[in-house]
From TrEMBL:
Domain GST C-terminal, residue spans: 90-222
Domain GST N-terminal: 1-87
Name of the featured protein: Glutathione S-transferase N-terminal domain protein
GO molecular function: transferase activity
Organism: Acaryochloris marina (strain MBIC 11017)
InterPro entries: Glutathione-S-Trfase_C-like, Glutathione-S-Trfase_C_sf, Glutathione_S-Trfase, Glutathione_S-Trfase_N, GST_C, Thioredoxin-like_sf
Keywords attached to this entry: Transferase
Family: Belongs to the GST superfamily.
Domain of life: Bacteria
Gene3D superfamilies: 1.20.1050.10, Glutaredoxin (3.40.30.10)
Record lineage: Bacteria, Bacillati, Cyanobacteriota, Cyanophyceae, Acaryochloridales
Amino acid sequence: MIELYYWPTPNGHKITLFLEEAGLEYEIKPINIGAGDQFQTDFLKISPNNRIPAIIDQAPADGGEPVSVFESGAILLYLAEKTRKFLPNDIRQRNIVQEWLFWQVGGLGPMAGQNHHFSQYAPEKLPYAITRYVNETNRLYGVLNQHLQGKDFIAGDYSIADMACYPWIAPYKWQGQQLEDFPEINRWFQQIEQRPATVTAYEKGKQISQSAQLTAEKRKVLFGQTAKTQSSQV
């Protein structure tokens, strides 16, 4: 059993994609990040960066005590190694998967995240910031589009690299992008979008988030954090 501490964000979707694809038994523990659930003491014990997702594996491969993992990239690697799925054994293919996983974690995710913030959430619209992150997102789309030429998926076969990248491409309209401008991404995206595991994962996320609305108070919780405010909320 995997306990998944989750909210339906791009990083949260990464993990439900894997769990659905792998057929692992799991239980979602919703962490409403707008309500400040991520600052609860019990959650911080497994996710000290007060971010979702995080997991507790109640049946780790070594048969020992439960294992907790935070950070979405680390979770994908942990689950792939646990199940021996979606991470190739071949050293060259495995390297490609890991390169693109870290490309997403270090590039696509942060840049698209800032894109979302300044274009969708910021109370003051700053043209320079919006243009900066829309353009950088566009550049990263171009990098992925070039790489996908002649490939069904990022590393040939479907892998955790695809699961990491797809949820950050899914909000492409928010990011000021058009998939028609990136034909290889468009083809790749549609293949993943139609997978039964993808449909199920996103439906579960939709059910959880239906009642969540971003109020002014929730905006403060999400976007007003400093070391001082975080410690006061614990």
